[in-house]
Amino acid sequence: MKKRLFTPGPTPIPEEVSLALAQPIIHHRNPEFIEIFSRVNENLKYLFQTKQDVYTLTSSGTGAMEAAVANLLSSGDKAIFVNGGKFGERWGEICRAYGVEAIEIKIEWGRAVTPEEIETELKRNPDVKAVFLTHSETSTGVFTDVKEIAKIVSENSNAVTVVDGITSVGAHELYMDEWGLDVVITGSQKGLMIPPGLSFIALSERAWEMVERSNLPKYYFSLKKAKKALQNGDTPWTPGIALIVALDVALKMIREEGLENIWIRHEKLSLAVREGCKALGLRLFGHPPSHAVTAVYFPDGIDRKEFQKVLKYKYGITVAGGQEHLKDKIFRISHLGYYDELDIVGVISALEMALKDVGYEGFNPGDGVRAVQRVFAEFEGVVEKRNEDDEFPNCCH
Amino acid sequence: MKKRLFTPGPTPIPEEVSLALAQPIIHHRNPEFIEIFSRVNENLKYLFQTKQDVYTLTSSGTGAMEAAVANLLSSGDKAIFVNGGKFGERWGEICRAYGVEAIEIKIEWGRAVTPEEIETELKRNPDVKAVFLTHSETSTGVFTDVKEIAKIVSENSNAVTVVDGITSVGAHELYMDEWGLDVVITGSQKGLMIPPGLSFIALSERAWEMVERSNLPKYYFSLKKAKKALQNGDTPWTPGIALIVALDVALKMIREEGLENIWIRHEKLSLAVREGCKALGLRLFGHPPSHAVTAVYFPDGIDRKEFQKVLKYKYGITVAGGQEHLKDKIFRISHLGYYDELDIVGVISALEMALKDVGYEGFNPGDGVRAVQRVFAEFEGVVEKRNEDDEFPNCCH
């Protein structure tokens, strides 16, 4: 059976990227690798829309989150985080593991923190050093307006804005420098279309100043060591060479498609998934929706386990379940990375058939797919229109 | 030109392992992956010769070193490390980054610490909590008798013995449980024959008791989190899935060849490299020699840069240079992992030709290869002969 992954990490890997993984290994100090790594670094700047260097860490995304905390802050520092999902909550857990006073904004899982809530907490804690945000909360499928919040943070405090872009980079509009995001991180098995094992982090000049003052312990994730090594086009420790060689291919694909086109594609595919689900009578969970992953309530009255089994073993489709207290309430369909229109037709069609198989009667066969096709026929991208003269980091001519 | 890597990480990757890397990605919570990961874990126990679980971290080997320090120790604890090379020195750097009082035994790079030196330092510091060792010091090609030292440590202190086996696991005899090694770590791009990006760590019961008491900050590298996740056959963070799928294939090859045979092969190939070099009039650096990597002085009177260039660009051979103050003094030939007799014939032959090309006259063409062949003809493995009834962790029938 053909297997199709619709999970928010790992995400499907293009065939040419897979084949790059299988190439003979090269040494990381060889000129051949140094050239690849340099091109990767330039393309990552484009992806992050920043002039700052983007550092490649050999770890999962959580490693880059820890790198942000351990390198920016000092013991006893205060930081704000938003517990509106499993990954927002993680910022708080990491801060506390390092003795940082983590001020929690706890919101119902399924909605986004508002700029006003951030402003209120900043006014209550004027000495906060960092605000940790989650651009696309993978556990709930909720999008947070980090552009607006970054403005609020800089108007109301001296804190840096740190953005978990693990499932937003390469899916959602993100202009790190222009929006004044001080730190952005992401992971490899997401919009970057390669297997898990690498994470990425970029820091503004203000954030680098904090790194100079930070006294929290770190070694493997030391960004000062990473910065020093990158001056020689290098990493402090042996990097995930094969993954970086594959990343080079994936980033070339991203350059060819163009970042704005990729954002529009994600917007369109996510809208199609939502419309398709609604046409099947399914209720969506979470608002506003991320373009990377759609969370959907299981319909009442069906056998949820049976539904997931049919989806996986009869139709070859792997979606993600809910996490923590959402475990038996929602499932999540990812459309992050290497997906196109027919992939979405496929997953909605499989949903239709699997729902019928388990006796759900809320729609007529074809309703979902018809709604999906309508989106594709009518969709007009609404990504911020930019003047062509706007300066784009665009270093790989 | 065919390219041949003779570097102590990355090491060459068998074709079947490379092809496993290129397989379609699977989700880490899918039964298919859980089965692979469970088999990998059993085979890692065999590799480490331990009944303890071996934890797979998504990081380079340095990450596992940091995991050992951050999970075992508490602030202000004392630990002994041996600075006899770049990697031994690293233990001290990590300890200090975490506020551990690191007691240095500084020895000349190129020799091994003796059990007596460890004993002396233990008597001077009876409150030491850990002794950090480097089984095969990659920077100098020196082997350390960790079996003997572990005995000394347990006879003279309550400290745990922590072994960096990054370039020894899969090359040198190592019986973690039987030798009383409390912690053993290794990396993926070494004896395990897969690309960099994974590291491995196993802990004795005594070491786990220390983990319970440790107060150093950690999150990504938290071994308690790793232990909890492994109870469900899982990892706390998304693991390097593609690398683990490849590791499964590599470990099957290791099981098929048999660990004792692999150790004997490394002993034979390393002896052949040393004899080949000596027959060319080259002086070996470091003693006693590691079976993973051979360090050789550049001969006097040749243009070292030209020699390395010829080797790399005319003969396709990448060897490693020296590190730190040994940079212009030695080069290092690795024979760790996926190498056989003809690979050694090839590298010694390339050395002969490249040395002639740069005007070195200390031998007659063929001298090196002849010495290599003689070793192969006469070699008898001296790996400790074990009774067949000895209990081997051997869980994958």
Defining key terms:
homodimer, 397 residues, alpha/beta, Aspartate Aminotransferase, domain 2, Aspartate Aminotransferase, domain 1, seven-stranded mixed beta sheet, 13 helices, L-serine-pyruvate transaminase activity (chains A, B), pyridoxal phosphate (chains A, B)
Task: Summarize the SSE layout with pairings.
Two copies of one chain form a homodimer.
Chain A: E1 4-6, H1 15-21, H2 31-48, E2 54-57, H3 61-72, E3 78-83, H4 86-97, E4 101-106, H5 115-124, E5 130-134, E6 136-137, E7 142-143, H6 146-156, E8 160-164, E9 183-187, E10 199-203, H7 205-213, H8 223-230, H9 241-257, H10 259-279, E11 284-285, E12 293-297, H11 304-314, E13 317-321, E14 330-334, H12 341-357, H13 367-378
Parallel strand pairs in A: 1-13, 3-4, 3-5, 5-8, 8-9
Antiparallel strand pairs in A: 2-10, 6-7, 9-10, 11-12, 12-14, 13-14
Helix pairs in contact in A: 1-9, 2-9, 3-4, 5-6, 10-13, 11-12, 12-13
InterPro entries (chains A, B): Aminotrans_V_dom, Aminotrans_V_PyrdxlP_BS, PyrdxlP-dep_Trfase, PyrdxlP-dep_Trfase_major, PyrdxlP-dep_Trfase_small, SP_NH2Trfase/AEP_transaminase
Modified residues (N6-(pyridoxal phosphate)lysine) (chains A, B): 190
Domain Aminotransferase class V (chains A, B): 25-325
